[in-house]
Amino acid sequence: MAKKILxxxxxxxxxxFLAFFMLDNNTVHVxxxxxxxxxxxxxxxxxxxxxxxxxxxxxxxxxxxxxxSNITTLRSGIEKLCMEYGIDDxxxxxxxxxxxxxxxxxxxxxxxSMLPTLKDGQTVLVNKTHxxxxxxxxxxxxxxxxxxxxxxxxxxxxxxxxxxDNKNIAYEFINGELxxxxxxxxxxxxxxxxxxxxxx
Length: 200
Fold this sequence. Notes:
It contains 3 helices and 12 strands, in the order H-E-E-H-H-E-E-E-E-E-E-E-E-E-E. The protein has 200 residues and is of the alpha+beta class.
């Protein structure tokens, strides 16, 4: 009988210890589908979880829109917010519709320069990465043209040459002058590439 009571006490102590350990585990889970961001935070710290989650959502959105940011930027930003809010030793997981530690972004095509591949108004899914290869379609910021969606046709070090898929040339009179209208070509730096189109 004494052995059964002792065994029961040991089991209860182990269960209490495990419950305390699990409750003391601070976690931040971010999910992004390219358009919507959800954050779920568990913490024993006395913090405003709603405000914290809102700041993590804002940070994630800023990373999605900044060509120089990546998954490392996002993770270190979340770690910094955890420190500011007193959420110690948080286990941070970043998941998305395209996998763990990936940042998807939905982008809308504007114009016909990527016909027949991409149509004006079409939505494409972009993986925010600088892992770019010849033949990829990328979203980038061009000093000359602003935001563009183009195909990579040459890579020289950190310089990426982008071209339009639409090879048609049209002519249009503007203010009495004849202009040649064709798809653009431009060089951008790898740091100006926001990501690679992975689904369209």
